[in-house]
Amino acid sequence: MNFDYQIAVIGGGSGGLTVAAGAASFGASVALIERKAELGGDCLHYGCMPSKALIQSAKEVYEAAHYSSFTSEEYDRLFRQAMERVAAAVQDVQEHDSKERFIKLGIDLYEAEAAFKDEHTLIVGDKTITAKRFVIATGSSPIVPPINGLDTVDYLTNETIFSLRERPESLAVVGGGIIGIELSQAMARLGVEVTIIEGGDEILSKEDQEIVRTAHDLLSQELSVLTRAKVDRVDKKPQGLTVYYTKDGAEGSIDAERILVAAGRNANVDALELQNAGVKVTRGSVEVDATLRTTSRHIYAVGDCNGSMPFTHVAGLEGKVAVSNAVLGLSKKVSYEKVPWVVYTSPEIYHLGLTETEAQEKYGDHLLTFKTMLRNNDRFMAERHKEGLVKVMTNQRGKIVGAHAIGEGAGEWMQEVGTLQALNKKFQSLSNVVHPYPARNNVVSQTADLYWREKLFDSSLNKAISWYVQTFR
Ligand SMILES: Cc1cc2nc3c(=O)[nH]c(=O)nc-3n(C[C@H](O)[C@H](O)[C@H](O)COP(=O)(O)OP(=O)(O)OC[C@H]3O[C@@H](n4cnc5c(N)ncnc54)[C@H](O)[C@@H]3O)c2cc1C
Ligand SMILES: NC(=O)c1ccc[n+]([C@@H]2O[C@H](COP(=O)([O-])OP(=O)(O)OC[C@H]3O[C@@H](n4cnc5c(N)ncnc54)[C@H](O)[C@@H]3O)[C@@H](O)[C@H]2O)c1
Description:
- This is Pyridine nucleotide-disulfide oxidoreductase.
- Residues 339-444 form the Pyridine nucleotide-disulphide oxidoreductase dimerisation domain.
- It is a single chain.
- By secondary structure, the protein is of the alpha/beta class.
- The chain has 14 helices and 23 strands.
- 33% of the residues lie in helices and 25% in strands.
- The strands form 6 sheets. Strands 1, 2, 3, 4, 5, 6 and 18 form a 7-stranded mixed β-sheet that branches.
- Helix 7 (209-219) links the parallel strand 9 (193-197) and strand 10.
- Helix 3 (48-65) runs antiparallel to helix 4 (72-96).
- It binds flavin-adenine dinucleotide and nicotinamide-adenine-dinucleotide.
């Protein structure tokens, strides 16, 4: 059977663009279908890029506020400037992800929503295209929980918050996950009074508990955090709204000008008519095996839509694996064991592998945990950023099973541990690498030194060395 294309990629975000560009570079005929006017997906338009631009602007304002206090009018102006800077940053990257770039690679672009007609046919707007293989990369959208009255207020999500130009006086945030926390801190630093309402026991539920406690304490200095709080309803008021919630059995309420919903993500699968192609959806996401194949063998799924790990670098990783399998015919498996992530709060949080609780469950008495508090490191003392810690867990031989940190710039300097793990090196080998003093990553080698201290202290080798020094030197 003849097909219009060898590969049709649905979705022009982080995952889809990686697949389309990779497939075209190997000489495949490729169709890329994107329902929005621009390529780039959530990361570029409503996610990583605008949020990181906003976080940087907010950080500068926050640091400046240590030296001179701003009036309400000055905060209004700084807020507008921050939002304009966000738009400029998105525009910069948009040029990099331009349609022309992909057309030049020989890819046929379709600007329409795609739906499967049958296993090899897509309806794309008023056209029909066929392909031998498909990669679904349709991403995710914000979950809007069924809260009474929420639909009567003009609530914000990550898709609308970056379009704000006027500073709200106050903001209630539903959800204390990564999105809620990053955006809340940025807003607070731009002069918005923020209250986070989190239904679970703690914010940032996927992080190591000790790291979360530090993050919670530090964030509470800048904004209000309510945990174990269930939002019951939202009432619209002439000026803003009131959020009613139940916390620990008691009812409470807060008034706010705006409300942001950051309550998790839903995979974008509804429009695809996946049943027509025999593709199964499990727990709301496209079901895939370790090679990223769906229940239809010629159809693959990458990125947020498959429910694995909703990060841009994971969409990129999966995109590369999908190219190997769908284009080159390999059966490469994707592994998430060595995938780190960073929460871009101030200070940043770095996450790799198991948390301490998970590692203790898995390794029990065989687990080694090495920890350095930043207050015991010269650079963090010098910069007066002493809050935070580094924690690395290994097995008895030094194989890294988890690494976590909270501290100024942790997203950059902790990746040293991620690189060691990816290269299958033992944690203690870092002790042999000379670090320039007082670079922040000294705190990582300082932590690796603890391995030797633990291993040598009280060991028979240490006793023999002591005997040798005392007897012969
Ligand atoms: C506020 C925020 C901040 C974030 N920050 C970070 C961060 O700092 N680091 C990080 O790693 N991750 C971050 N993420 C997560 C990251 O944005 C996602 O993991 C990433 O965008 C997923 O890429 P994707 O290709 O799966 O989906 P997307 O990038 O969302 O792309 C999917 C594309 O498919 C299109 N589409 C959907 N359905 C159809 C259809 N039927 N037909 C045609 N087109 C369709 C959509 O329009 C979209 O363009 C953040 C997310 C948010 C919301
Ligand atoms: N720095 C980064 O890499 C980065 C930044 C932002 C987002 N992301 C990605 O996006 C994903 C989604 O982020 P997210 O924060 O939306 O989701 P999430 O699932 O991490 O957090 C959602 C939070 O909302 C809470 N919640 C849900 N319904 C609620 C309700 N009705 N009332 C009160 N609380 C409620 C949940 O308990 C949870 O803690 C992240 O897991 C991450 O993978 C990554």
